[in-house]
C-alpha cells in the first residue's frame, strides 16, 4: 500500500531549488524552525509516519531530531542520506552551489556521526544522489562501510538518484551484492507527470520487494505552470474536488505503486492540500491520459537545472 511521507528539503533551509509563491516570508532560522515544527505536527496528526531528511537540507536533520525528542512518538520512521554538504550556511541570495557533493568514505563517516542521532527511528540510510560520475558504486570501501552499518543498526541501505541516467544507475545498483545478498534495499527516485523514464525498472524493483520512495512528485512546482497538461489536471481537480497537487501526487501513487510518495510541503496548508491525494483513486483511463504528459528525460533535467534557488 502506498502512503505519503514528508520530505524536509524545503523546511530546513531558507532557499531551495523550487518554484515558490512570490509572497515574502520570514527566512530567519528561528522562523523556519517554528514552521518546521508546525508542519511536522500537522503531518503526524494527519497520519504521516515517514519523514525524509538529509545533511544538505540545512537544519533538516536537527529540526527532525529535536521535534521527535520533544514529542516522543513511538511509531515514526526516519530516512536520511549522506554525500552532500550544505554550504550556503543560511546566507540569503548565496552565489554558487548551495550544496556540494562528495561520495568519499571520509564524508560518509563524518555525516554518519551526526545522522546517527536520529536512531532508533532512523530506518533508511541512503547515498544522496548517486551518479556514475561520482563512481560511488565502484567505491569498495564506501560499500563495505554501508554494509557494516546495515548489519550493526538494522538499517535499510538505499540510494537516491537524479538526472537523465536514473534508469541505468538503478539497474546497476540493484545488482550490487555483498556476501551474496543485495546491498540496496531502498531506492528513492524522481518520478512524476513529466519524468517517467525509469518506470519499467521501478516496477521490476517493486516486484522484487525493494522499497520505493518517490521524490519530486510535483516536479519542483512545475505541475502548477501553464502546460498542455494543465487543462486535464484542472478537469480532474474539479472532478475530485482537490488541488492540482493532489492529482499529480495521486498519479505517482496509482501509476507506479511505490511504498512512499514524498510531500515536499513548505507549510501546513500545502501539506493539507497534498494529503488530499489519499482520498481518491484515479481510474485506469485517467492514469493513461496523464502518462501522456511525459517529456524527454533530457529535456526534463535541462529545465530543472535552470530553476533558481529561492
* Main sheet strand line-up: 1-2-3-6-7-10-11-12
| C-alpha termini separation | 35 Å
Low-confidence stretches: none
Q: Which value, in Å, is the CA radius of gyration?
A: 18 Å
Count of individual beta strands: 12
Q: Any idea of the CATH topology?
A: TIM Barrel
The CATH superfamily is NADP-dependent oxidoreductase domain
What is this structure's SSE topology?
Elements: E1 3-7, H1 29-45, E2 50-52, H2 60-71, E3 77-82, E4 84-86, E5 99-101, H3 105-115, E6 122-130, H4 140-153, E7 156-161, H5 166-174, E8 177-178, E9 181-182, E10 186-190, H6 199-207, E11 211-215, H7 230-240, H8 244-256, E12 260-263, H9 268-275, H10 284-291, H11 297-305
Parallel strand pairs: 1-2, 1-12, 2-3, 3-6, 6-7, 7-10, 10-11, 11-12
Antiparallel strand pairs: 4-5, 8-9
Helix pairs in contact: 5-6, 7-8
3D structure, described in words:
- The structure is a single chain.
- This protein is α/β, with parallel strands linked by helices.
- It has helices at about 30-45, 60-70, 105-115, 140-155, 165-175, 200-205, 230-240, 245-255, 270-275, 285-290, 295-305, and strands spanning about 5, 50, 75-80, 85, 100, 120-130, 155-160, 175-180, 180, 185-190, 210-215, 260-265.
- The strands form 3 sheets. It has an 8-stranded parallel beta barrel, surrounded by 6 helices. It has a two-stranded antiparallel ribbon with strand order 4-5. Strands 8-9 form a two-stranded antiparallel sheet.
- The longest helix has 17 residues, at about 30-45.
- The model has no long low-confidence stretch (mean pLDDT about 95).
Amino acid at each position: 500500500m502506498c502512503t505519503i511521507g514528508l520530505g524536509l528539503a524545503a523546511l530546513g533551509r531558507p532557499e531551495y531549488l523550487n518554484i515558490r509563491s512570490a509572497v515574502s516570508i520570514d527566512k530567519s532560522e528561528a522562523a523556519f524552525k517554528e514552521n518546521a515544527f508546525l508542519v511536522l505536527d500537522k503531518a503526524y496528526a494527519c497520519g504521516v509516519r515517514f519523514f525524509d531528511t538529509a545533511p544538505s537540507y540545512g537544519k533538516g536533520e536537527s529540526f527532525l531530531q529535536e521535534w521527535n525528542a520533544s514529542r516522543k512518538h513511538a511509531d515514526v520512521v526516519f530516512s536520511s542520506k549522506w554525500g552532500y554538504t550544505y554550504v550556503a550556511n543560511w546566507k540569503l541570495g548565496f552565489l554558487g552551489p548551495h550544496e556540494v557533493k562528495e561520495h568519499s568514505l571520509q564524508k560518509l563517516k563524518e555525516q554518519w556521526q551526526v545522522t546517527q542521532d536520529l536512531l532508533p527511528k532512523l530506518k533508511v540510510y541512503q547515498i544522496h544522489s548517486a551518479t556514475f560520475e561520482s563512481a560511488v558504486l565502484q567505491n569498495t570501501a564506501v560499500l563495505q562501510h554501508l554494509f557494516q552499518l546495515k548489519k550493526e543498526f538494522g538499517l535499510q541501505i538505499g540510494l537516491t538518484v537524479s538526472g537523465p541516467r536514473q534508469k541505468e544507475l538503478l539497474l546497476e545498483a540493484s545488482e550490487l551484492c555483498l556476501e551474496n545478498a543485495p546491498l540496496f534495499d531502498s531506492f528513492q527516485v524522481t518520478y512524476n507527470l513529466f519524468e517517467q523514464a525509469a518506470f519499467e525498472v521501478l516496477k521490476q524493483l517493486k516486484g522484487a520487494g525493494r522499497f520505493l520512495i518517490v521524490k519530486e512528485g510535483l516536479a519542483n512546482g512545475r505541475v502548477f505552470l501553464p502546460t498542455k497538461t494543465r487543462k486535464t489536471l484542472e478537469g480532474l481537480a474539479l472532478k475530485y474536488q482537490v488541488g492540482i497537487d493532489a492529482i499529480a501526487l495521486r498519479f505517482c501513487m496509482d501509476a507506479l505503486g511505490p511504498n512512499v510518495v514524498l510531500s515536499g510541503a513548505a507549510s501546513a496548508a500545502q501539506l493539507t492540500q497534498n494529503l488530499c491525494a489519499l482520498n481518491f483513486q484515479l481510474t485506469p483511463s485517467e492514469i493513461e491520459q496523464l502518462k501522456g504528459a511525459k517529456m524527454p528525460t533530457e529535456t526534463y533535467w535541462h529545465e530543472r537545472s535552470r530553476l533558481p534557488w529561492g
